[in-house]
Every structure is written in structure tokens, then in C-alpha cells.
Amino acid sequence: MRKRIDLEYIFSSSVSILFSRLSTAPGLAEWFSDDVKHAGNIFTFVWDGVDEQAELVDMKKNSFVRFKWLDADDEEEFFEFSLHVEPLTEEVALIITDFVDDDEEADEIELWNKQVEMLHRTVGG
């Protein structure tokens, strides 16, 4: 059984700009993978010429987007991007939920950190 991780990152960007980078193929292609295509609810993510497909299973505009890998062994696994606005500072917290093998947790967190660093550069916040 894989372990659920929740990672939080703070942005100074607007929720709508950030949400577009999390929920659309062009937005995801800017930071998440080399290329993204979609047909209906199926998104094809491309890394180094290798395709991985995920289904968009749930979304609430400017709040969260949840995907499920089509080749996932566990029906309960997903990856999700959710946004929360901090009331006092109005900063936006991006919370990424993912599932990892225990022995790969540090590598997965490092990968997410690098990808979110790229997202920070694309949204300027």
C-alpha cells in the first residue's frame, strides 16, 4: 500500500491565474510535464517522450482539481491540486495530494518541489 502525502506551497498569484495552470492542458504543459493533450476528461501527460494518461475525475473552479492515473493499481489513489486563500495575508496556498511508495517519498517530494518552482516562475508569484 502506498502512502498519501500532502505538500503545501504558498503563492502571491491570483487564484484564477493559478487555477488555470492546474486545470487546463496548456497551463499544465507550462510546468507539470513536457506536453499535455486532452480529449474530454482524459489528459495525456508527456515526459521525455513517454505518455501517461490520467482522468479528470473531479473539479471545482478556483478550488481544486483531481486526477486519477489510468494505469494506477489502487482505485483509491489520485493526485489533486487544491487552492486555499489565507484570509489575513490573501496569499494562496497550493496543496498537492499524491500517493508514493515509502522508499520513494523523498525523491517524489523533491520532484514536486522542482515542478512547483517552475510553476512559481510561470505565474510570477
Automatic annotation (TrEMBL):
All residue ranges annotated as the START-like domain in the record? 2-124
Endpoints of the signal sequence: none
The record, for SUPFAM superfamilies, names:
Bet v1-like
InterPro entries in the record: START-like_dom_sf (IPR023393), START_2 (IPR045736)
**What name does UniProt use for this protein?**
SRPBCC domain-containing protein
